[in-house]
Amino acid sequence: MSGSIWHITWEDIGSSSGGLGVACSELVEALPESHVLVSAAGLIEGRESSYSSYYSDSAIAAVDYERALGKLVSGQLLPYAGIDQDVWRFNLALLGLKRGSLEALHVHDWHGILAAVALKRILKIPLVLHFHSTQRERLGGHVNDFISGLEQWGASQSDSLISVSNHAAAKLVRSFSIEPEKVRVVHNSSKFSNRLGNQLCEVRKRRVLFVGRLCEQKAPLFMVEVMRQLYSISNDYSFLFAGSGEELEKLQCVVDFYGFGAAVDWVEHQSHCDVGQYYRDASFVCMTSYQEPFGLVALEAAQMGVPVLVTEQCGVAELLPSAPRFSLERAKSWSDYLHRAHVDAGYYFKICKSLQKEAASYTWQDAAEKVLAIYAKLLD
């Protein structure tokens, strides 16, 4: 490749709002030096670091994206048709960057789609749209019309789409009526073992961990019910919620109501490295998401030798076939399994080792090679 490729993302690796920044940073690091990570954190000051502006029950009126694109290219400073001001500023800043010899664009999720489509047309270069999660996967029935519409429009304007799992790719094809051959799957990986050292498999104190945004998608209220039932089996268990979100106060009230608040700790993790310490202290990690296109937390935990329990809707299970999977219909199935796994040391060691081996079998370099193959086809 003779030019550079921009990877456009809202989050940077220091963000605590989700795994998007981590995944983008690790992928770009594994790619050749011609790949440049361009994030909102580096372009606009004082912006919101999460999706909080769009977590609401009220839908924004449908937007004429072609008209919005024209306003953006003309340099209009005020957002168009209710588009969030920070998102608009981000897209304006992208158009104002010195481009050099730009060969392709790779936009991660929805925030930079407008500017990416504009640059694709101006420079006549290919555009790859990488869906780490869609609006429908993040919010379920509370879909925001602006973002969902922008995702579908962006998908139609892109030359190729990337999904983080086969599970998510199938949903993408159905939701946006996309030809299946336009979508490629590139799973995420993790470098936790490289940074923090392999966690030796050992029987730890009975501490069950939940990491993620405390929002409806992640089903933290279901996790509270699992904890309640597990604590009723044995009060030797303790629990940690690591994350923040609109469900926090409700969760704390429910825990206090059931009377096991003393066994639950709540932390708002501030950096990616903080999570490594939470994994070290945990005996099990649970991912209770209603929809989880990938689930980087489960892969990170497994790589450190911590067993994980996930829902049937988690794409990460494609890389971790040994991970037990349960539905969200019966909390008792979760609590019974967790207790059996904790008291059976032989099984505990077995699942730790199996998951750690599976997590180590796929690297960011593997992901990078798949991405390069997608570019090669587009630029041929």
From TrEMBL:
<dbReference type="Pfam" id="PF13439">
    <property type="entry name" value="Glyco_transf_4"/>
</dbReference>
<dbReference type="Pfam" id="PF00534">
    <property type="entry name" value="Glycos_transf_1"/>
</dbReference>
<keyword id="KW-0808">Transferase</keyword>
<dbReference type="InterPro" id="IPR001296">
    <property type="entry name" value="Glyco_trans_1"/>
</dbReference>
<keyword id="KW-0328">Glycosyltransferase</keyword>
<feature type="domain" description="Glycosyl transferase family 1">
    <location>
        <begin position="204"/>
        <end position="320"/>
    </location>
</feature>
<protein>
    <submittedName>
        <fullName>Glycosyltransferase family 4 protein</fullName>
        <ecNumber>2.4.-.-</ecNumber>
    </submittedName>
</protein>
<dbReference type="InterPro" id="IPR028098">
    <property type="entry name" value="Glyco_trans_4-like_N"/>
</dbReference>
<dbReference type="GO" id="GO:0016757">
    <property type="term" value="F:glycosyltransferase activity"/>
</dbReference>
<feature type="domain" description="Glycosyltransferase subfamily 4-like N-terminal">
    <location>
        <begin position="18"/>
        <end position="188"/>
    </location>
</feature>
